Amino acid sequence: MRSDFGLYLIITNPFLPYKKIAETAVKNNVRYLQLREKALSDREILRAAGEIMSITEGTETRFVLNDRADLAYLCGADGLHLGQDDISLTDAKTICREKVSVFGLSTHTLSQVDEAIKQKPDYIGFGPVFTTPAKAKPDPVTGTELIAEAVKRAGDVPVVVIGGIDGNNLISVLDAGAKNVCMVRYFMNSEQLEKRVKETVKILNDYRW
């Protein structure tokens, strides 16, 4: 049975401190909180991870590290998220051993969804749905038209829809079939993080698919 969770929060170049973001995630029962800071050194990533985990440890919010299986193992992250250009899920599990329990994979096309599902991840990301500057080298936009098919092909694996989603287009994404969403700039570029998270969680909880 599918285990959808609604909001997936990613930290990238945030306006607010890491601990404040983690506190907001825990307070609002956000299931996954990912650290995606590609410009930081390994030492800075581990320091940031420690700050976040000091808040999330022992709560329902799972801390996920982006890309780096080695650092996920070292800091004891709950999860690891891998992109299309990262090491394989099999290799990541070998590095992380039993320390990391949740693994996610990014996908940008329906064929990538098919390949990802074969690897049996705990969830997949799909997008970017809309144009977004969140990545230095953005992938081609999928549009909302492919969301329902991606969800269908994923079967029991939750799909997190990502890319250019904000308060203005969230409903259109849900109408297209998304049940789990990630909104990076909408949260990270705002000092009204808690207000926006609360509003988004309420929309997701109240929406009737």
Automatic annotation (TrEMBL):
Transmembrane segments: none annotated. Its EC number is 2.5.1.3. Pathway: Cofactor biosynthesis; thiamine diphosphate biosynthesis; thiamine phosphate from 4-amino-2-methyl-5-diphosphomethylpyrimidine and 4-methyl-5-(2-phosphoethyl)-thiazole: step 1/1. Binds 1 Mg(2+) ion per subunit. Gene3D superfamilies: Aldolase class I (3.20.20.70). 4-amino-2-methyl-5-(diphosphooxymethyl)pyrimidine binds at Q34, L35, R36, E37, K38, N66, S106, K135. Pfam families: TMP-TENI (PF02581). InterPro entries: Aldolase_TIM, ThiamineP_synth_sf, ThiamineP_synth_TenI, TMP_synthase. Residues 17-185 form the Thiamine phosphate synthase/TenI domain. Keywords: Magnesium, Metal-binding, Thiamine biosynthesis, Transferase. 2-[(2R,5Z)-2-carboxy-4-methylthiazol-5(2H)-ylidene]ethyl phosphate binds at G164. It catalyses: 4-methyl-5-(2-phosphooxyethyl)-thiazole + 4-amino-2-methyl-5-(diphosphooxymethyl)pyrimidine + H(+) = thiamine phosphate + diphosphate; 2-(2-carboxy-4-methylthiazol-5-yl)ethyl phosphate + 4-amino-2-methyl-5-(diphosphooxymethyl)pyrimidine + 2 H(+) = thiamine phosphate + CO2 + diphosphate; 2-[(2R,5Z)-2-carboxy-4-methylthiazol-5(2H)-ylidene]ethyl phosphate + 4-amino-2-methyl-5-(diphosphooxymethyl)pyrimidine + 2 H(+) = thiamine phosphate + CO2 + diphosphate. One of its GO terms (cellular component) is cytoplasm. Mg(2+) binds at D67, D86. The keyword Magnesium applies. GO terms for molecular function: magnesium ion binding; thiamine-phosphate diphosphorylase activity. Condenses 4-methyl-5-(beta-hydroxyethyl)thiazole monophosphate (THZ-P) and 2-methyl-4-amino-5-hydroxymethyl pyrimidine pyrophosphate (HMP-PP) to form thiamine monophosphate (TMP). Belongs to the thiamine-phosphate synthase family. This is Thiamine-phosphate synthase. The lineage of its organism: Archaea, Methanobacteriati, Methanobacteriota, Stenosarchaea group, Methanomicrobia. The gene is thiE.
